[in-house]
């Protein structure tokens, strides 16, 4: 068991090191030597887990779609909101998430590995479909189209935000995006009870820490 746990930790170290290097330099400019230097581990240890830079990139992308921290809510729409806000909060703090976007917009990497955007669209479609079945969405709303457009808008906001000389807070920008989108999708009675505050991710994470400690 101890050996298995060490192996899991070692694999994670290499994924995070690769993510940092991909995020800073792009896929083509990233080298195994730079990843080893960042990880502080041996080449042998790397090749035990990953056979190539390409496999490392695939491993980073596999970590991209996550709803960690999101708990069941009264409204499915709130869960959809929470995923969007938590991702915006975590992305600048977690190289694995940031690198997955960098790899997705890198033409060379995208050609080799594709992206996880279809998976994000599928996840959103499933949540919004359930929300519509519960009567939370207006009759005209198409869950698949809404999810697809929102993933595109979320990604565009993130890319533009990080390119600005003084980048605004991503959580605040995504909060504003949700405020624009939700009135055209949520029924009024549900809309009034949704929390899109940019402070919500911190509250959710604090609640999770408190629950884990109790």
Automatic annotation (TrEMBL):
Its keywords, alphabetically, are: DNA-binding, Transcription, Transcription regulation
Which residues, as ranges, make up the DNA-binding region of this protein? 31-50
tRNA-binding keyword on record:
no
Gene3D superfamilies in UniProt = Tetracycline Repressor, domain 2 (1.10.357.10)
- GO terms for molecular function, please? DNA-binding transcription factor activity; transcription cis-regulatory region binding
Domain HTH tetR-type positions: 8-68
Q: Which Pfam families match?
A: TetR_N
* Origin superkingdom: Bacteria
Protein name per UniProt: TetR/AcrR family transcriptional regulator
Query: What is the native source organism of this protein?
Result: Streptomyces nitrosporeus
Q: What is the lineage of its organism?
A: Bacteria, Bacillati, Actinomycetota, Actinomycetes, Kitasatosporales
């Amino acid at each position: 068991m101890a050996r298995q746990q060490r192996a899991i930790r070692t694999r994670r170290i290499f994924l995070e090191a690769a993510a940092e290097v991909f995020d800073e330099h792009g896929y083509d400019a990233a080298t195994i030597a730079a990843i080893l230097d960042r990880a502080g581990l041996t080449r042998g240890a790397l090749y035990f887990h990953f056979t190539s830079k390409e496999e490392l990139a695939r491993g980073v992308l596999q970590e991209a779609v996550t709803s960690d921290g999101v708990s069941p809510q009264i409204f499915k729409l709130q869960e959809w909101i929470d995923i969007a806000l938590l991702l915006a909060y975590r992305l600048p703090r977690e190289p694995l998430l940031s690198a997955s976007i960098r790899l997705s917009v890198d033409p060379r990497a995208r050609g080799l590995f594709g992206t996880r955007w279809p998976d994000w669209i599928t996840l959103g479609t499933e949540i919004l479909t359930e929300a519509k079945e519960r009567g939370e969405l207006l009759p005209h709303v198409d869950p698949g189209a809404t999810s697809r457009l929102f993933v595109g808008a979320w990604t565009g906001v993130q890319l533009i935000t990080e390119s600005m000389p003084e980048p605004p807070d991503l959580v605040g920008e995504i909060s504003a995006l949700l405020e624009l989108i939700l009135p055209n999708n949520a029924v009024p009675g549900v809309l009034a009870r949704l929390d899109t505050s940019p402070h919500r991710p911190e509250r959710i994470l604090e609640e999770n820490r408190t629950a884990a400690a109790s």
